[in-house]
Amino acid sequence: MTKSDPVVKLFDKVVRFREVVTLTSQKNRNGTTSWYANIGYDAKGRTVRRGLGLNQDDAYAKLREINQRIAQGKLTEAANLFEVSSDLEVKAVLRKLEGHGVSLMQAVDFFLKHHRPTAGHLTVRDAVTLFLEDLEKRGRAQKYIKAYRETYFPHFCKSFGNHRLVDIGLGHAETYIYETKSKLSRKSKADHITKLTTFFNAMADLKYYQKDLNPFAQMKKPQASKLDEQLEEKDRCVSVAGVEAMLKHLVSKEYWDLLALLTADLFCGIRVEESRLLNWNTINLDRGVLDLSGKNAKKRRRRATDIPPNALHWFLLARNGQNGKWNVRTENALRILWRRTKQKVIADNKQIPNLVYHQNWARATFVSYGYRHFGHDKTLEMIGHTMKGDVLRSNYREVVSDEDARAYFEIVPDDIKRLQIEEHNAQMKEEYPNLALETDGDGRFLEPVWD
User: Fold this and answer.
1) pLDDT of residue 1
2) Residue 103, CA distances (Å) to 57, 113, 213 in order
3) What is the average pLDDT value for the chain, to the nearest integer?
4) pLDDT greater than 70 at residue 9
5) 237: which DSSP letter?
6) Over pLDDT 70: what percentage of the chain?
7) Can you list the pairs that 5-8 forms with residues at least 24 positions away whose Cβ atoms lie under 8 Å?
8) Pseudo-torsion of CA 396, 398, 401, 407, nearest 10°?
9) Is the distance from CB of 416 to CB of 313 less than 8 angstroms?
10) What average pLDDT does this structure show over 398-408?
11) Which residue(s) pair with 407 in the sheet?
12) Which residue in 157, 303, 335, 390 has a CA-CA distance of 20 to 30 Å to 263?
C-alpha cells in the first residue's frame, strides 16, 4: 500500500483515506467537548471518523501520529487508535528514561521482576493489612497474629504507614530500630528485626515485593547484652516488700482489674495470658478454687487450682471494688498502664533495695516463694507446668528463705491485717494477762522471751 493508492479494506468496509486528517470538536449534552478526526470515506461516501477523547492536547498528539502513519502508507495502523495511543505512551516513557542509562526493556524487566503492577503504589499500612489477613487465612495462632498486630506493627505503621512499601530501604530500617526503638533491649531489637524481616519476605511471597530488597534482612542483629543473657528466674523474683508496695499502690489507685489479675499471677501461679481470660465465675471464692478451662490454659488442659487464703482476701477486695463485675481493659491499655504503674511504684519506693519488676516477674515470684512454701509437687501442679522436677528444682531451689516464703503468703490487705493483729493481740493478752508484751513495727504482740 502506498500514498498513491489510499484505499484499504478496513473494519469490514472499504475506506478511502484523506491525505491529511484534521481535528474536529463537538459539544456534548453534558457541556464537555469531544474531539474526533475524519480519516476518510467509505464506498457510499459516508464519513469514517475516530473519536480522540476529551483532552485537546491528547487529541492533537494522536492526530499527529495518525497523519504520520498515513504519510508512510500505514493505513491500518493509522486507523487503530490503540496502537496510536500505545506508541505515544512509549515515546513519553523513552523521554523519561533519557539520562538514566537504561533502556525501556531494562526498565520493564526490572518492574516485572520486583513488583506486581499495583505493588508500586502499595503503602506500608495496606501491606500490613494484607499480611495479617494472610496469617488468618493460613491459620496461624492468634497469639502469633496478636504479637504482630499489637507489638511489632503499631509504631512501625506510625513511622512509615503512608510510605510506599517499595520505598522502605536499609536507611529507614536502621533509623527505626536504632533511633525510634532505641529504648528497647538488644534482644528486643533483634526480635523486631526478625519479625519485620518475616513481614517483608511474606509480602515478597505474595508478589508485592522482592526478597533481595528486604531492608531488615540486610541488617545485622545486635548481640544480646550480658544482662539479657544472665537474667535468670531468681533475678525476676521480687521481695516481699516489693510485692506489698505494688499491691498497696493498686488499691490506692483503685485499679481493681489490675489487682484481680495480679492476685491470680502472684498467689495462684497463673500465667499472664491465662489470667486475662478469667472472670468471677471461674474464680470461685466460696469454694476457694480457681478453675481454668482447657481452652484458656496454655497446655489446653483444664486446671483447678486451690486459692491460698491470703489471695482470697485480695480477690474479694477486687471484686467488691468492681461491684461484682469483671472489667478488664484491652491488652494494649493494660500493657501501657502496667508499664507506668511499675515505674511509679519503683520511683515511690526507693527505700526498697534493688526493686525492679522484670518481665514475667509475678509468675517467677510465685514459683520462687511457692516452691519453698508448698513444695515441689504442689507448686508444679498449681503452675500447670510439664517441666521435669530437676529443672524446677535447679531454677527455684534456695531462692528464698522459709521465713520470706511464710511472710509472702501472709500478705493481705491492710484492713484484714489490722483485724488479724487485733485477734492475735487479744489471744496474747488472754494467754499472758500479767505480762507487758513488746510489739513489732506493725503493733503485733511478740511472744515473750524467757531467760
Assistant:
1) 40
2) 27, 15, 22
3) 83
4) no
5) P
6) 85
7) 6/40, 6/70, 6/75, 8/75, 8/76
8) 10
9) yes
10) 89
11) none
12) 390
- Domains delineated in the chain: 7-109 (no CATH), 120-230 (1.10.150.130), 233-408 (1.10.443)
- C-beta of residue 124 within 8 angstroms of C-beta of residue 162: yes
pLDDT at 248: 95
Q: What is the largest CA-CA distance in the chain?
A: 139
Q: Which residues are within 8 A (CB) of 75 and not within 5 positions of it... i.e. 6 or more apart?
A: 1, 6, 8, 10, 15, 17, 69
Quick one: average pLDDT of 329-355? 91
The position carrying cell 544482662 is: 227
How far is the C-alpha of 373 from the C-alpha of 407, rounded, in Å?
10
**SS3 category, 386:** coil
**CA neighbor of 385 nearest in space, from 370, 373, 399:** 370
The residue ranking higher by pLDDT, 311 or 448, is 311
pTM of the model: 0.54
Cα 47 from Cα 19, distance rounded (Å): 14
pLDDT single digits (tens) 188-227: 899 999 999 999 999 988 888 888 889 999 998 887 654 4
Contacts of 103 (CB under 8 A, 6+ apart): 97
For 160-174, 208-222, 234-248, 289-303, which range has the lowest pLDDT when averaged over its residues? 289-303
Q: Residue 59 in contact with residue 22, Cβ under 8 Å? A: no
CA neighbours within 13 Å on the CB side: how many for 332? 10
- d(CA 236, CA 239) in angstroms, rounded, equals 10
- Kind of pairing between the strands at 23-27 and 33-42: antiparallel
Taking 3-state DSSP, the helix, strand and coil percentages for the chain, each rounded to the nearest 5, stand at 55, 10, 35
Task: Say which DSSP state 15 is in.
Answer: E
